[in-house]
């Protein structure tokens, strides 16, 4: 049993309920990212009507980024509707969602998810209800906590993932 295996066992055994609460947070965050992907891909009628679905020729970035106002308006509106932005956004949502749900690649998911959420925060400025704090910033902290604590090892495939030779030689993939 190596060091990372012992850490995972300690999280589950020593933290008990907290380990399961972190797993619930991980699963909830994973579903949030994956659901955004599914709704934008197929237009399931929640945030995205079916006629605006990516599979029907819609752009997952146009609606939100075209309406950005505030200090970064020019940056974000210039990205709206470009194929590269659509692909990066959708691959990001899918990859982050799957990684969090499975409990694998937690560091990569936390960094990429944090960047995506930071961009969404910057696009939302100025905030309507608070001078600086909103849920995007809190979700960035949640992702960091999930990665740091190894939350993928409880109710996830994190332990098995860490044993893969590729991950052992590239610890940033944990």
Description:
The protein is globular and about 45 Å long. The mean pLDDT is about 90. The two termini are about 15 Å apart. The relative contact order is 0.16. By secondary structure, the protein is mainly α. α1 (about 5-15) crosses α2 and α2 packs antiparallel against α5 (about 85-100). It has helices at about 5-15, 15-40, 60-65, 75-80, 85-100, 105-125, 135-150, 160-165, 165-170. The protein contains 9 helices and no strands.
What is the radius of gyration computed over CA atoms, rounded to a whole number of angstroms? 18 Å
| Classification by helices and strands | mainly alpha
Helix count from the secondary structure assignment: 9
| Helix fraction by DSSP (H/I, runs of at least 4) | 55-70%
- Which residues sit in consecutive blocks of at least 5 with pLDDT less than 50? none
Number of strands: 0
SSE sequence, one letter per element: HHHHHHHHH
| Net shape | globular
C-alpha termini separation: 16 Å
Strand content: under 5%
Main sheet, how many strands, which sense, barrel? none
Mean pLDDT: 92
Set out the fold topology.
Elements: H1 3-15, H2 17-42, H3 62-65, H4 73-79, H5 83-102, H6 106-124, H7 135-149, H8 158-163, H9 165-169
Question: What would the keywords be for this entry?
Answer:
single chain, about 170 residues, mainly alpha, 9 helices, about 0% strand
């Amino acid at each position: 049993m190596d060091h990372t295996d012992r850490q995972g066992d300690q999280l589950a055994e020593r933290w008990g309920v907290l380990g399961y609460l972190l797993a619930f947070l991980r699963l909830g965050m994973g579903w949030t990212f994956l659901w955004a992907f599914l709704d934008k891909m197929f237009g399931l009628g929640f945030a995205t009507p079916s006629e605006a679905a990516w599979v029907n020729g819609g752009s997952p970035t146009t609606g939100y980024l075209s309406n950005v106002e505030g200090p970064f308006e020019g940056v974000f509106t210039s990205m709206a509707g470009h194929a590269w932005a659509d692909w990066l956004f959708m691959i990001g949502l899918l990859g982050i969602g799957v990684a969090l749900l499975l409990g694998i690649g937690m560091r990569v998911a936390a960094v990429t998810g944090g960047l995506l959420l930071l961009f969404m925060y910057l696009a939302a400025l100025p905030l309507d209800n608070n001078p600086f704090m909103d849920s995007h910033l809190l979700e960035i902290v949640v992702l960091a906590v999930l990665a740091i604590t190894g939350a993928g090892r409880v109710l996830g495939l994190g332990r098995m993932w860490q044993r893969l030779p590729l991950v052992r030689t590239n610890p940033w993939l944990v």
